[in-house]
Amino acid sequence: GEGKSKDLSTDVRTDSGDVSGKQEDKPTAKGVSLFVFASFIATCHGGFVKHMNILPSGEVVLISCSCAACFLAILITFQGHSFVDFPRKKFVFLRCVSGSGALLCKVWSIQNLPLGNAT
Prior knowledge:
Helix content is 59%, strand content 6%. The protein is mainly α and 119 residues long.
């Protein structure tokens, strides 16, 4: 085909709904704090998983993913996005499947490997 390339950068919308150009690639304090918070939550998750080895790995993943899905549903609804109409549905589905597999492997290894400091 033709040598067309897609522009994958995102536009920034202001509070009034106007598009104000392309998003800059500067880290912000909010982004850094969210990254630190996510790291803390992942560490806490590992600690809880280590002490819940009476449950099968699949149940732990189901509980974790259900809590994450509820949290994300609240955020998506609050931001006014659609659950049904979004681009790249196949890519998102594959990402969900591979992420669930990775989480299952992580939970299994934390529960079953003899690591005292797995978190």
